Amino acid sequence: MAIKAKMLGREAVTRRLRRLVPDAEKEAASAQLEAAQELATAIEQRAPLGESGDYRASIEGGRLADKPQNAVFGSSTKDPNATGIFADYIWRFLEFGTVKMAAQPHIFPTYRAMKKRIRRKVAGAINKAVRKAKS
């Protein structure tokens, strides 16, 4: 017997999830923000100190909607709860290096190391909302 599946768009899935579990989106948004802040702290600890430490102090996690001036061209999202990591513009030069300076990767290796944990945190928040709605 063949299995049939119907692919739904993000809006349809979100609408259906809201109907079944009203608190899922709120719980997931809270977990996303918490995970972004934890990731920012981990990146900050691995960041190069430099002479003044200003770059390290500039690293923070937060919602993209709270910092529209830091938006990156070409990367838009429909998710109102989308989160990101914000830092001074020199992060690119430090992460990837230049002709005169060797690369000091600290953002992407930290993210890759924490990726599974972040996904588990968000999935756990949604599961918690589902369990709450079920009872």
In short:
This protein has helices at 10-20, 24-46, 54-58, 91-96, 108-134; strands at 60-63, 83-86. With 135 residues, it is mainly alpha-helical.
Plain-language structure description:
The protein has one domain (22-70, 81-134). Helices cover 53% and strands 6% of the residues. It has a two-stranded antiparallel sheet with strand order 1-2. It is elongated, with a radius of gyration of 19 Å. The chain has 135 residues and is mainly alpha-helical. The model has no long low-confidence stretch (mean pLDDT 86). The protein contains five helices and two strands, in the order αααββαα.
Mind summarizing the main beta sheet?
A: 2 strands, antiparallel
- How many structural domains in the coordinates? 1
Shape call = elongated
How far is it from the N-terminal to the C-terminal residue, by CA? 35 Å
- Helix/sheet category: mainly alpha
Number of strands: 2
Unreliably modeled segments: none
Biggest sheet strand line-up: 1-2
- Following the backbone from N to C, one meets helices and strands in this order, namely HHHEEHH
